[in-house]
């Protein structure tokens, strides 16, 4: 993401000064923008294309414009959306969806089953270079041939008529419907969507509750209510998403009534809890996400030594990070699977903080006191204070407990993701948030040898075998036992340094009513209304 343009930053700063001391939050919100829902996006949107997007901040924007066959409900289960329902064949491999009648794209044309076939085949075109297509569509018969340029079409997707879509997968998979909630499976208008990446609001033609109206890069994205929305009347006239990368600026904008909702950094929560005007605006949300530090075993050869990874893991005091740096809001991550994901355990067997044992292991590996280790850099995304302070703490503890010098480097978000996708991040702090509440989305996808999100070259044949068997096991008890064994092996291998499970803190103005919640975050704003 690009650095915000200077003009916008100055304008925002002047606006804050001008607003200071004039009335309370609710009064300022109501001045001229009574029916506009305003909340910032903390980074430049990484893509305007549902087939390309892969980060949560941008997905929140995309899902207001585009929709899929199914969506997440407030019960954290897939529910009908553009499909009114579906049937599954006796062998568990063919899903037949009935497309909802009367749904219109933002250009006025009625949705047809063929639009889904077009959208998924577009996403799986090897020239399109989607980083998410294989992750979420790869179970569909013929997708791999399409992705590798061996087939023109996806044989496992057919649209026998305008309201029927059939999808055949390679084997029964209990988590498959959850995958179809991801944007790369969303419908796009085939006559209006380019073969390449969508790069302008004019090309964002979806069926969602809001239309993309305008986007000034690095400044603001504006969405207008879709008056023809198939899901009912949209009460809000417009959504405005100013791009505000600085956390302090975001908070000040909220205090000055310029935005209605803001996600907080942990450093601000303590003061807000004691603020008589804002403490009742403070809300907390548990998210099925883990923040961790990753090792690239090929890019940094010492990480290929289990003793080095164990030493680094045992030298990081996660409890102090959560307690002292993150103000105790989050939960220490002892394992990989977060709360909310089936198979999560409170105390899986992992490595506890033990600096003395860590020093012994590093010495056994030939790097006593950190001597002999190549230069090491810890990378993380820009403009997020919580991420920075955790990275600083990790580097400080490695220096204190092991004598290892670690430099720090922030990166612009899209550039960070591109380097991560290329498996070139060496030592990095980031998160993985569930796209569906299944261990497959973590263990198989990120930590099996050939998992599409395995960016670290971690490999354990036993983990691979356990995950492969569990992925296709329709017996819940059996598959969770398999995943538990796999997670135990991953923790014993110190594949990651788990740090904490995510809990969001937000300020939400009481005038905002009707927000729909799920573990995944705020659901598309179909029922939001704004009090005067």
Automatic annotation (TrEMBL):
Q: Name one Pfam family in it.
A: SBP_bac_5
Cellular compartment(s): Cell membrane
- Entries under InterPro entries matching the protein: Peptide/Ni-bd, SBP_5, SBP_5_CS, SBP_5_dom
List the coiled-coil residues: none
Its GO biological process annotations read: peptide transport
Q: Does the keyword Signal apply?
A: yes
Annotated membrane topology is: Lipid-anchor
Which keywords does this chain's UniProt record carry?
Signal, Transport
Domain of life per record: Bacteria
A GO cellular component annotation in the UniProt record = ATP-binding cassette (ABC) transporter complex
Q: Where is the Solute-binding protein family domain?
A: 77-453
Gene3D superfamilies attached to this UniProt entry: Dipeptide-binding Protein, Domain 1, Dipeptide-binding Protein, Domain 3, Periplasmic binding protein-like II
Principal cellular location given in the protein's record: membrane
What does the record give under GO molecular function? Answer: peptide transmembrane transporter activity
Task: Report the PANTHER family cross-referenced here.
Answer: PERIPLASMIC BINDING COMPONENT OF ABC TRANSPORTER (PTHR30290), PERIPLASMIC OLIGOPEPTIDE-BINDING PROTEIN-RELATED (PTHR30290:SF10)
Q: Which family does it belong to?
A: Belongs to the bacterial solute-binding protein 5 family.
What is the official name of this protein in its record? Peptide ABC transporter substrate-binding protein
